[in-house]
Amino acid sequence: MSEPHPARMGHIAGFSTSPSAPPIYQTTAFDIPDLDVLAEIYAGSTVGHIYTRDSNPNHSALAESIAMLERAEAGAVFSSGMGAIAAVAMTLAGCGDHVIVGRSLYGVTLKLMSRLQQQFAVDVTYVDACVPNSVAAAVRDNTKFCLIETVSNPLLEVADVAAIATALGSVPLVVDSTFTTPELVRPLEQGAAIVVHSASKYLNGHGDVMLGVAAGSAAHMKAVRATSSVLGQNANPFECWLTQRGLRTLPLRVRQVCETTAGLAEYLSTHPQVSKVYHPSLIAHGTHATAARLYASGANGEIRTGGIVSFVLNGGGKAAVTKFMQLLATIPFSPTLADSRTTISHPATTSHGFMTKQERTALGIVDEMIRLSVGLESFEQLRDELDAVLTQLDQ
Ligand SMILES: Cc1ncc(COP(=O)(O)O)c(C=O)c1O
Fold first, then answer.
1. Closest alpha carbon to 360 in 368, 351, 352
2. pLDDT at position 148, please?
3. Other residues' Cβ atoms within 10 Å of the Cβ of residue 44
4. Is the pTM of this model over 0.85?
5. Per mean pLDDT, which range of 262-271, 318-327, 350-359 is the poorest?
């Protein structure tokens, strides 16, 4: 017998009991018995995996869970939310095509669209996604998709997915449901063709993963996976595993953050140091009526749109924001959202920092705007911390 070589050690044989938690298939490739089996896997007649850039059991398990939650035929996973959006966009549209995009989406999504326009000659029309007629008016013969967010980042504008899908006719509607999750809305049931999420946010929910997911028809998902394979946007198996674990508590987490966030929005809207609050539960919010119609899913009919509320300090520019950040005792400035702990971010310098000040101001993203991502702490704890800081800003 030859000497054992470390390069061949550590493989675990199958055994008669199975693990209670799913295993992590942290592998680059899979051992394939012969060329016949390889051909069967390629043809889809035998279930198997070949190379993790294309597929992996942890990808498949999570994709299936997302498809079940979104009531889709199939799902797909990607290296990040942007990976998902880029793969969908580059599958549906190419050089010379036209796309319609909500004008107040997550900043990096807008950046991607501008790149598609500049580098790949995709014509982009920006619309107010809260006005289905403006979407209908933008449709052309060569329009390949329309992209909107269910509830936009960071202005919390609520889109009426069903009305937009109707306005688009046969043009596929792609919906980013990162803020809302399948707990609050299922866009495919309202006529969308594809739903995408940054799973780095609520689906995982613990601030320790970069991942994206999509769901839709089997044909769309097959095509989108093929794009992501050539672009190398494959998800990491461990991050799929973590997200699968995060999903188990999604209903509980979403219920709690919705409740706390609506309470904090109400509190902030009465504070003299705050000039404006963006949350759809407030009557003053531009899309309150749409939210009341589509998101009144709380136990007593409260509007539930996730754990984000944005607010504007009463003047003082970035210096006031810096002071606010420094005074906070436990809430960190962390440019993400949907962590299990509460965090704040500053859209004007992070997600929308690539825009000119005029472009941002036209959208309402001013220097004094703070985006609060509400975590699992109690309402009272968060209100008291915010109250203490806002009171000190006054001095
Ligand atoms: C609404 C929305 N979509 C997409 C993304 C991009 O996701 P990721 O950061 O996982 O690439 C984000 C990130 O913040 C987001 O807020």
1. 352
2. 98
3. 9
4. yes
5. 350-359
Residue nearest ligand 1's atom 13 by CA = 198
Place of tokens 């979104």: 70
363: left (phi over 0), alpha (psi -120 to 50) or beta: alpha
Mean of the per-residue pLDDT values of the chain: 96
**For position 240, what pLDDT does the model report?**
98
Residues at CB less than 6 angstroms from ligand 1: 80-82, 106, 109, 149, 153, 176, 178, 198, 200, 210, 212
Pocket residue to mutate for ligand 1, from 105, 175, 200, most atoms within 8 A of Cβ:
200
322, 323, 324, 328 alpha-carbon torsion, rounded to 10°: 110
How far apart CA 317 and CA 368 sit, in angstroms, is 5
Nearest to 72 by CA among 278, 177, 215: 215
Euclidean distance between CA atoms 390 and 266, whole angstroms: 15
The least confident of 17-26, 171-180, 338-347 is 17-26
**Whole-angstrom Cα Rg for the chain:** 23
- The answer to whether 104 and 129 are in contact (CB under 8 A) is yes
| 153 CA closest ligand 1 atom index | 1
User: What is the rounded CA–CA span in Å between residue 85 and residue 176?
Assistant: 8
Q: How many CB atoms lie within 10 A of CB 198?
A: 31
Q: What are phi and psi of 220, to 5 degrees?
A: -60, -45
The Cα-based distances of 341 to 230, 265, 286, 334 in angstroms read: 36, 17, 28, 10
- Type of residue at 155: L
Interval 325-369: pLDDT, tens:
999 999 999 999 999 999 999 999 998 999 999 999 999 999 999
* Strand boundaries in 51-92, DSSP class E: 74-78
- CB 130, CB 154: distance < 8 Å: no
Q: For atom 14 of ligand 1, which residue has the closest CA?
A: 336
Ligand 1 pocket test, pick from 80, 178, 343 with the greatest ligand atom count within 8 Å of Cβ, gives 178
> Tokens standing for 41?
């896997």
- Which domains, ranges and CATH numbers included, belong to the chain? 35-247 (3.40.640.10), 250-393 (3.90.1150.10)
Count of positions (residues) in the chain = 395
Contact between 175 and 192 under an 8 Å Cβ cutoff? The reply is yes
